[in-house]
Design a protein that fits this description.
single chain; about 300 residues; alpha+beta; Glutaredoxin; five-stranded antiparallel beta sheet; 10 helices; about 40% helix
């Protein structure tokens, strides 16, 4: 059967009018947002922010795209590896057997000029992200105070990082700012402030915190200038330090407090028996590996002019 010339022209015209399929790519932020909302069942109340892609340092040939989701105090941060054509997405961990498996975390941990205790040059470094108003952090502080350096007097160094959960704990950030003000004046007095604030945690409110901070300063008049401290707190002079610490914690996917990094290994909460076993393992492992601790050559080992 022969088709008429007019029919062929009509069919060709309809084919020409059919829209070409849109090429979907993960590099289009709207496309990726729709995809991850479906993947994680994020409803419209969840705010999604997608960063610009950058070459992946972990997997050459792929691009790295960070996705941040937030709803009130809840946060979720994900990093996707995207193929160059934008079609394939990888979510997971990429390891290089020639390096410490926690090197990405070690590279992000900045310990220079942070409050610390323990042995300089120790084979095990613990970085603690904590919140002064958090009751679990109070328990963790007591556990670490009572057991960490008595059990491992020469093998561990502990660094303190502020991570106030502002949506849950309204006076946590002012307390962190005040703590850094104390640290600027007298680094040794910081740990006295640290112990004092957890001891008085139940008595502190958002309204009475400035007064309570002055009570602490007056009780330590030989170590702390109360007038200078009051000015520092009022001017929020150390807030940038706190914000930097919060940003670092988010980059490390810290979602709750207390969270520790033991030679880069993330440990949520302080279960002493679990922590003790991890520390003991790291002590033995670093005798030969020498790729963590303060002598590893990682960013975590940056020295501070102030030690205690």
């Amino acid at each position: 059967m022969r088709l008429s010339f007019a029919f062929l022209i009509l069919v060709s015209g309809l084919a020409a009018q059919k829209p070409a399929a849109t090429k979907q790519t993960a590099f289009d932020k709207a496309t990726l947002e729709r995809y991850v909302r479906h993947l994680y069942v994020w409803n419209p109340e969840v705010k999604v922010e997608i960063e610009n892609p950058k070459p992946s340092a972990q997997l050459p040939g792929f691009m790295e795209v960070a996705v941040h989701a937030a709803m009130g105090p809840q946060r979720q941060d994900e990093v996707f590896l995207v193929s160059r054509d934008g079609r394939r997405i990888l979510r997971g961990l990429v390891y290089d057997v020639a390096q410490n498996p926690f090197k990405p975390q070690l590279d992000k941990l900045k310990t220079a000029f942070q409050p610390s205790m323990g042995e300089p040059g120790a084979p095990v470094v613990i970085v603690l992200f904590t919140d002064f108003q958090c009751p679990y952090c109070k328990q963790a502080a007591k556990t670490l105070h009572d057991k960490l350096l008595t059990t491992f007097p020469k093998q561990v160094r502990l660094y303190f990082k502020d991570y106030p959960l502002e949506a849950l704990h309204p006076w946590a950030k002012p307390a962190a700012i005040a703590g850094r003000c104390v640290f600027r004046q007298n680094p040794l007095a910081f740990w006295e402030y640290h112990d004092w604030i957890y001891e008085h945690q139940q008595d502190i409110t958002t309204e009475n915190f400035p007064q309570k901070a002055m009570e602490f300063a007056k009780s330590k008049e030989k170590e702390i200038d109360a007038t200078q401290l009051a000015q520092c707190i009022e001017n929020r002079a150390t807030e940038a330090d706190i914000d930097k610490s919060i940003a670092e914690g988010r980059a490390l996917q810290v979602f709750s407090t207390p969270t520790l990094f033991v030679n880069g290994r993330q440990v949520v909460g302080v279960d002493w028996e679990k922590l003790r076993l991890i520390i003991q393992y790291e002590i033995e492992y670093q005798k030969t590996a020498k790729n963590a601790g303060e002598d590893c050559g990682c960013s975590i080992q940056l020295s501070s002019p102030v030690t205690n």
